Amino acid sequence: MQKLINQIYQFDFLKGAVLTIALVLPLYLGIRFDQMGYGLAFAMGVFFTFLPNTDGSNRHRMLGIVFALLLSILITLLCHFTRMASEWLFYIFFGVCIFWVSMLSVYGFRASMVAFSGHFAMIMSFALLKTDLTIGLKLGLIFSGGIWYLLWASFSHWIFQNKSTAQKLAECVESTADFLKVKYQLLWNNPDNRLELEQKLLKLQIDLNEEHELLRELLFKKRVNEGQSNKTSRHLLIFLEMLDIYELALAKDTDPTEYKEALGLHFDKTQTFQSFAASTIVHLYALAEAIRTDKKLPLEEKPTENQEFCESSIKSYVDAIGLPEAREGALILRNLLDYERRKEEKTFAAKRVYANILEGSDSSLRKKDRQLFITTQDYNIKTLKANLNFKSSVFKHALRLTIAMYVALFVGKVFEHQNAYWVLLTVAVILRPNFGLTKKRGLNRIYGTLMGAGGAVLVILLFDSNTIYGCFAIPSLFLGFVNLQKNYKVAATFITSAVILLYAILVENALNIVQYRVIDTLIGAGIAFLAIYLLWPVWEEGSIKNSIQKAIEASRAYMENIDRIYHSKEKPDTVYRLARKKAFLESGNLMAAFQRQTEDPKSRQGHQAQVYANVVLNQTFLTALAALGTYIQDHETTEASKEYETVMRHILENLEAALTSLGGGELTNEEDIDELFQATGVLEEKFVKLSKERDVELEKGFTPMSQEMRNKLQEGKLMTDHLKWLHSISDSMKQTVMGLANP
Questions:
Q1: d(CA 506, CA 499)
Q2: Which long-range contacts (CB under 8 A, 24 or more apart) does 408-416 make?
Q3: d(CA 673, CA 141)
Q4: I need a labelling partner for 467 at 20 to 30 A (CA). Which of 164, 208, 507, 521 fits?
């Protein structure tokens, strides 16, 4: 029951419920009073405005709905007048409209939904031809339907907006826990399905980046618009803690080799650390459930006993091996303890914020800083102009869709199908900007149509009652709309079933409708497949270098900011957080681009091995950066040495060389390996010197280690190891990129 209640507050559930209510009522009245033309035109107004109602700020949702309604009315009006003037004039307008409306997609996802509303208005103008309504009445009904849906959408948002935001935050907390859980399994469980878990981890990272972007828009803009409300402040502070936990999670590598080599036969000493990590994951799941259900959450007054158990494990390891032999393993365990303790602190901080304990929080951001974290869309006309060329994937998609729609129109005209506009609708729904999405969408559409048609036929054969048809059609519509964004296969199944059942209420030969529906879907899918494959196809291999370049540039900026706070010894500021956000996003974008490439035809998956190597190296580099950044934030560090500066310069030079290769340039300078070896050698000697100083202390009987000595040893070990690791990865990135740029 609780899961059902949670589902009710999901945005897709609410949106599906609102659309179903807004559609069913006018359709029922149209059927009840034998005025289906009125009901159909009114329902079209509802559906035209539904599509831009996607996740995001309320202002953007409302503007998207209004713009889609006005665009749909304008297209319907122009379709009427061009048809009245000349059939050939309408055909010209048809192509011009499809192309320019498609170009609206340059302004982002919501704009692409507005564009689809425009396409849908063009397509459904064919259905309106079958009614005997005047154009004025059609437009009035469409406008009324749009306003009707706008009122419903506004009302539902007013009632459920806080609960919906809380659900999104709960999903983010739960996804963070899922991310930590998979990393835990990879690090400690030695799983047989390691490759499967690594792929799951990459997908979780992509999903988390999307959830973070949505919550930034929802929470930061809500804070700006509504001011310092207690609930909004709490949600924002919890979200910021999740971002820090995510950075900590990225900082930990999933390879257990370091621990096995350092601890040897005493690897069992990590059991307490594993329990510590598992405990934090459990606390995050509990927090997510509390946010989702709006229930109280037990709070811990002090850190859990896990820290004490881990301290005991370190002591037990040192006692068993003895110093100085145990020093390296002890430092590794000490760094692991710091990492787990920091995760627990962040988790407990989020739990205290949830309990409305806000004292001492330093997570608040100034208004102008909050705006910087929101990804804004530039609606300048220059953006449209810049995409009017064949370098733009949107431009190529607009041309491709226009031609495909002309072909679909011609097919419907020649073969005189009963509802030829279904072919147009199938092409518009299936044809996406790239091959992978089109193939997936097309197969789901075909599967959904066949399954939905089969289900509807079964109902029609078993029952001969319009009431029963309606009872099946309404929940089918609802389930279809709820899954429209999440699972298109399911959505297509239920929507097809609902449409056929509605036709069964209106006409006698409903089974013939099934035949036409299936045939038109297959024809439309065939046209879409041919279009994406033959007309200016966009293969991911052509743009993957750009994704790699952006990821390297973002990682370089993140590294430069880590270097900056290491020098200044200041707390992370807005500039640092923005660089971190950018690095995480671009890494996720690169992984998403690689996934799309794997969906392209085998013949178009060029240099896949090099691309995959770049994806893995970029992710590993980001992990090393996050580890370095979190260590610097959470520990007292010494002044940056000359050797540190040297190694950092070599790493940045490697990144610059990789970017130069991707840009088609030639490398002019060879790396000074002797200088690098000398610098890393000095850093290692400094750690050896510190170790000897500690050995002298032990000989003199100073068994307890001072905090200052511990900090120096930790910094010497971790900073040296991570600088060498970062350089090794950056060098591999340079070599791999050179192989990709010059195959």
A1: 11
A2: 408/523, 408/524, 408/527, 409/91, 409/94, 411/523, 411/527
A3: 75
A4: 521
- Asked if 239 and 211 count as a contact pair (C-beta separation under 8 A), the reply is no
Of 419, 424, 386, give the one whose Cα is nearest residue 402: 424
* Phi and psi, residue 321, nearest 5°: -95, -40
- Dist. CA 451–CA 444, nearest whole Å: 10
Secondary structure of the chain: what % helix, strand, coil (to 5)? 80, 0, 20
Structure tokens of 213? 């972007």
> For residue 300, what are its two tokens?
């811990």
- Look at residue 669 and give its three-state secondary structure: coil
Q: What is the pLDDT of residue 302?
A: 58
- At residue 372, φ and ψ (nearest 5 deg) are -65, -25
DSSP state of 270: G
Question: Which residue type is seen at 348?
Answer: F
- pTM here is 0.76
Which single residue is written with the structure tokens 């950044």? 629
pLDDT tens-digit readout, 392-427? 889 999 999 999 999 998 887 776 655 678 889 899
Neighbouring C-alpha atoms within 13 Å toward the C-beta of 650? 25
Spell out the alpha helix ranges (H) of 507-641: 510-534, 544-568, 574-598, 608-634
Closest CA to 419 of 526, 528, 530, 512: 512
Run of H or E including 367: helix 367-372
Burial 586-623 (b: 16+ CB within 10 A, else e): bbbbbbbbbbbbeebeeeebbbbebbebbbbbbbbbbb
pLDDT tens, residue by residue, 141-193 = 999 999 998 888 888 777 666 677 788 888 899 999 999 999 999 888 888 88
Contact 452, 496 (CB under 8 A): yes
97, burial (CB in 10 Å: exposed 0-12, middle 13-18, buried 19+): buried
- pLDDT value of position 8: 52
